[in-house]
Amino acid sequence: MSALDAPPRSATGAWSGIAGLAAMIATVIALRSWQQPDYIRTLAVLAVVALAMVVVDLQVYRVQHNASSGLSAAPQRPSDIRRILYKLAGLWLTVGVVAAIYWLLPVYSDSFYDPFKQAALYGLPALVLLSPVYIAFVDRLQRQPEDAYAQLGRLVAGNRPRDWSMLAAHGRGWIIKGFFLPLMFIYTNNDLAALWARSPLVSIDNFEHFFSFGIDFLYLVDVLFATVAYTLTLRLTDSHLRSAEPTVSGWVVCLFCYPPFWSSVGAKYLAFDQDDAYWGHFLGSYPLIYGLWGSIILALVLVYTWATVSFGLRFSNLTNRGIITNGPYRWVKHPAYLCKNISWWMISMPFLSTQGWTVAVQSCLLLASVNALYWLRAVTEGRHLAADPAYREYQDFITRRGLWARIRRGLPWVERVA
């Protein structure tokens, strides 16, 4: 393979995600009969997956030595107790503000979020014990130790920063973490509980059962990896926040796709599955087509999940935590969005309505509107990430060597039409 054919260096490699996936499968099997509340079993699975990926990133890829980590290989200075205390104050003030927002907003009093609150309280002692050790260790390695936590601690002590941009980025990053982490944890907890409640034997001779298990498992992998990544925004693993989406439009199109915004607005006004007649309803009488159609759906969701796994510890909406160029990102800039949106057409089949052609046309237009929403997400994300030279290099690679570029070179008439 020539240098021109190879994608730019990825922020992490494939083995990080593979290790996390292997650890997940082994732990889920091992804890199936463990007599503990689901949130504790979920925490255990998340902890093992996180540990597996951290070990691979530190020992195999040596991400702590990346220039983007801001860390040196050896301590730069003796421990500065005052700065460490400022950072601890900044961290706990941040956590306290997020906890206060959870208490203030009525949506978080819903029983839906109870497992997250129980898990957070269960894990709080570990955070109390580990945070001083981690902060003191990383502080000695940081080339620029006056980070956002130090600035926030100094602000509490009465020292106003000259430049507020670092604190603004810190605030945006924690809003993103605070919004998505509870959702991803709840989805993971519920999906794991459903998986443990299933029969341990998967019926491979019944495609309907196999499809149901397969798609549920793939979506579980997606949210579980997202939960780990939202939790571990650490400089030591080079998975810290580089930047957060700076525009209101970027935030709006992203958050609209998640509860409570989607469930209260999007699901009502963009309900493309009005008749609740999905692909199985239309194809159930044709076993061969049913199996082929379902297999394509599974393949699409597999690529979607593969995209999340490829991020390792770095998955996050609305942020840049390192540019990923391996996995499906080697061929397409937004493989998750592309496959997810195609799968919705195949699952809902809005063009075949049980309520007549007018509802079919209506449903197709509504699903196309959802597709347009994800196109806007891709546009705003690309605009944000383009501030990073590594992403611009990746964009250039996709333009030259991506899937669409290869198709155009292989089909001359496509090149002429384009």
Give a concise summary.
66% of the residues lie in helices and 1% in strands. The protein is mainly alpha-helical.
Count of strand segments: 2
**Proportion in β-strands:** under 5%
Count of the separate structural domains:
1
Structural class: mainly alpha
Topology as a string of helices (H) and strands (E):
HHHHHHHEHHHHEHHHHH
Describe the structure.
The protein has 418 residues and is an all-alpha fold. It has one domain. The protein is 66% helix and 1% strand. Helix 1 (14-30) packs antiparallel against helix 2 (38-59), helix 2 runs parallel beside helix 4 and helix 6 (165-197) runs antiparallel to helix 7 (207-231). The protein is globular. The mean pLDDT is 94.
Key features of this structure:
single chain; 418 residues; mainly alpha; two-stranded antiparallel sheet; 2 strands
Question: Layout of helices and strands, plus pairs?
Answer:
Layout: H1 14-30, H2 38-59, H3 81-104, H4 114-141, H5 148-156, H6 165-197, H7 207-231, E1 243-244, H8 248-255, H9 261-269, H10 279-283, H11 287-310, E2 319-320, H12 335-348, H13 357-385, H14 389-401, H15 403-410, H16 412-417
